[in-house]
Amino acid sequence: MEIKASPEVIWKIMTDINNWPNWNPEVNKASLNGEVKEGETFQWKAGPGMIKSTIRSVENERLIAWTGKTLGIIDAIHVWKLKPLNGKTLVWTEESWEGIATRIFRGTMRTMLEKAIHSGLLSLKAEAESRSKQISNLNQK
Question: Domain with 63 in it: what CATH number?
Answer without folding.
Answer: 3.30.530.20
